[in-house]
Amino acid sequence: MSVSLTLVVTAAVLVGTGVYLMLERSLTRVLVGLVLLSNGVNVAFLIASGRAGEAPLVVDGRDPADMADPLPQALVLTAIVITLGTTAFLLAMAHRSWQLNGNDDVQDDIEDATIRRLALADDVSEGYEIEGHGDDDADAADHPEEDRG
């Protein structure tokens, strides 16, 4: 089986560019990255399907080895439909974000920002206890709900 180097490079560039754009904060760039990634994967499916052949129809006297494999074609059609639905959803999210905020950037989550700020300010969290370096009275004062009878 001979594979076209041009198709392999095209698929690699589309997938690489798509992944790079999907890592951006702008939903518009994520949308373009999703479309590029999907097209790159579709081209990779077609590359993996092998050489082109005759239509896969059952006719007496035809050699099945000369027929094209219909499975990659079905996978590509399914991927196109899934990409269309995902693109519509992401486009609606970007439009709504633009209406509410005036931009389509993904905002930081409040809880994530709080955890990041606390992690940068504190080397050791308050819940971390070093074993063997504390007296029992201090541990009992820290955890009054435990019965240390």
From TrEMBL:
<feature type="compositionally biased region" description="Basic and acidic residues">
    <location>
        <begin position="130"/>
        <end position="149"/>
    </location>
</feature>
<feature type="region of interest" description="Disordered">
    <location>
        <begin position="126"/>
        <end position="149"/>
    </location>
</feature>
<dbReference type="InterPro" id="IPR039428">
    <property type="entry name" value="NUOK/Mnh_C1-like"/>
</dbReference>
<dbReference type="InterPro" id="IPR050601">
    <property type="entry name" value="CPA3_antiporter_subunitC"/>
</dbReference>
<protein>
    <recommendedName>
        <fullName>Na(+)/H(+) antiporter subunit C</fullName>
    </recommendedName>
</protein>
<dbReference type="Pfam" id="PF00420">
    <property type="entry name" value="Oxidored_q2"/>
</dbReference>
<comment type="similarity">
    <text>Belongs to the CPA3 antiporters (TC 2.A.63) subunit C family.</text>
</comment>
<keyword id="KW-0812">Transmembrane</keyword>
<feature type="transmembrane region" description="Helical">
    <location>
        <begin position="6"/>
        <end position="23"/>
    </location>
</feature>
<feature type="transmembrane region" description="Helical">
    <location>
        <begin position="70"/>
        <end position="92"/>
    </location>
</feature>
<keyword id="KW-1133">Transmembrane helix</keyword>
<feature type="transmembrane region" description="Helical">
    <location>
        <begin position="30"/>
        <end position="50"/>
    </location>
</feature>
<keyword id="KW-1003">Cell membrane</keyword>
<keyword id="KW-0472">Membrane</keyword>
